[in-house]
Amino acid sequence: MFLLAVPVLCEQFLSYLVTMTDTWLSGRISREATMAIGLASYVSWLASMLFALVGTGTTALVSRYWGAGEFDEANRVANRSATLAAAMGIAFYGIIYSAAPFLVNLLDLHGETAAIGVRYLRLDGIGHIFYAVTLVLAAALRGSGNMRTPMIVLGVVNVLNMAVSAGLVFGFEAKLGEAAPLVLLPAIGVDGIVIGTVVARVAGCLLMVGLYARGVTGLRLIRRELVVRGPIVRRILAIGMPAALDGALMWGAQFLFLMIVAHLGEGAQRDSIFAAHIVGIRVEAITYLPAVAWGAAAATLVGQSLGAGKPQRAIYSGHTAARQCGMLGGVMTLVFLFGAGPIYRFMHHDPTVAAEGIGALRLLALAQIPLTLEIVYVASLRGAGDTRTPMFINVLGMTAVRLPLAWLFGIHLEGGLIGAWIGMVADLIFRAALVVWRYARGRWIHTVV
Fold it and tell me: Cα(177)–Cα(206) distance, rounded to whole angstroms?
């Protein structure tokens, strides 16, 4: 479990550095830039959830076939999945390009902030076409037990993203003697952040496709298999549909939650609260690093164990991942409790943003262990092909707990960001309890994929 999780953890850490770098760069520009970056991050999150329609089914099927020794079928799944991912990426770009002004208006953004937000979303959408293929091919490799190659490819993507984005925000010049400096990278502000992201995602897709063209871990692109038809495609969609629907519903609820945050306070205070929320959510993403890593490892071992006819080993895999990852969640609880002040002062130059966010981040510290458990056990269930139960639990937590409590304490009782985050903390604890209960019952081992 540990050996499978560590490469994914390294990959997630680099991904986290990208989000932190983007947020930090926007914090050097303005509150408006941070707000626009925050909106784009929610849309990117929606994209990754929708791509799970293919990725979740891919991992579940490849791991089952791999555990049963049916490697040709596993390779067929990888090829069909790549084609599906490309189609989804193109469709998503078309939707986001048209919907960008509407999303900006929903958050009541105006003037420069609205213009930045629309432009950012439309440019970012180009990168999602290529990122969809990269993520799904990485999911196939993880299903085969190869965690190292996705780590290297996505690591290259993330490092390139940070380098190009920072260079385009601040600019880069070379001094050649007494002559005027040679501009190697122009300083273009907030647009530089998204252009860096697009460049990196295109490069990552080309690298991943190149590896598959040569063959990696027994998986290879085969031209005749790059089609969207047949029973394998239907099985991928049947497994992934609940996960994608779960993602879409979760994103819709999260966007409603973001709308609540966007209406906390008025004027300059409102902007500070919104920016503080974006910074806090980006910072808290560090807890997702071990959770997603151990969740990916658990999904692989659960699927392969069930494919090999070893259900008890599958059950033990999920519990092992939860124990290992839960300890790291405890560490992050202490970091957020005692480091909230320094974290906010480093992330944003505006002191009003820090003033709104420090107390809220300390509150959020209480949900870090439940958050890790929920992510790990959900990934374990999905690795077995049980994608419907997590969907119902997630929707219930968001609609019956988070949104009502966030509105009550944040807007009605005027509790500000802390009030809204009371709903978020209660939701995370509620969902963790239900997912742990579902996993402990063990009925998911009979899931047919």
Answer: 38
